[in-house]
Predict the 3D structure of the following.
Amino acid sequence: MSSKKKKIDAEVAHVEPSPEIDVEELEGVGRVTGAKLKERGYYTVRDVAFASSKELAEVIGNEERAQQIIDMARKMLGLYSFISALEVYEKRKRVRRIPTGVRSLDELLGGGIETRAVTEIVGEFGSGKTQLCHQLTVMVQLPEDRGGLGARAIYIDTENTFRPERVMQIARARGLDPDQALQNILYAKAYSSDHQMVLVEQTKSVIKQQNIALLVVDSVIAHFRSEFPGRENLAERQQKLNKHVADLLRLADAYDVAVVITNQVMAQPDVFFGNPLRPAGGNILAHGATYRLWLRKSKENIRIAKIFDSPHHPEGEVSFRITEEGLVD
Ligand code: GTP
Ligand code: MG
């Protein structure tokens, strides 16, 4: 055991103990496992409830079973919706990043688009949202030694703007076989908001089997806006959108995939100073997305990207160009 670990244990020892229940009281923990656990310092249900699956796996040999025992211990203590901050930290370390192909943008994003998070791309028509989505479906495929994840992508298209030819161009520019690149993207067209939600549900069964690390929904909002027009339908629309975004967040977290959604902008008639545009979807998307990236048109093929509303990214802007080869610095 490292000295750092010992120090943490020593600090934990100062915490007021809850009623102690012998670790062997846990369902499925018999004499043998119980003895092993006690030998390593896990005497009570509480000791197990505060352990991480990784450290417990060292005792009982298997991370999945360790997690089951931890879950049972937490249930017994009424803690089942909590995890320790150390686990949060360990989970954060397991986050993977998909490079965007634009170095300055990757720097702005702290390395790329994260798995276990929902990244929203907002911007006016022609600002490059769909182009960035196309590029990511290629970048995720790059082998790990070239910064990618060596994984595949799912593309849910609601606006009929997915272009395989464009993917092929970008793949070629990145040294990938264009046909192979297309084969590594699973595509579905969503015909309505309901269909879009069903498709997301269906991705669950393929994500693990097919080594999927990226799920694109382009755009997340178009069907919702056209099916629920006007103020009178707003509450219903937002309720449904809320469920959709919550589903996407859960999926990202549970399956270790990067979810990338695009969003449109709306003009606010009552703004006289500053930016009259704001993202559609209101609070639901503002609170639902983990990261929000705003794209803006500059002259010709130049675009400007800015992160807004991020829990830990610095504010800042970077620019890139949209070219034949995709997005470049
Ligand atoms: P909406 O979906 O309409 O809201 O827009 P968007 O933000 O998705 O825009 P999109 O990503 O479709 O960007 C379109 C821009 O990319 C246009 O300005 C095109 O000129 C540019 N573009 C698309 N394909 C190519 C290409 O092959 N070469 C170059 N140089 N530019 C391209
Ligand atoms: Mg688009």
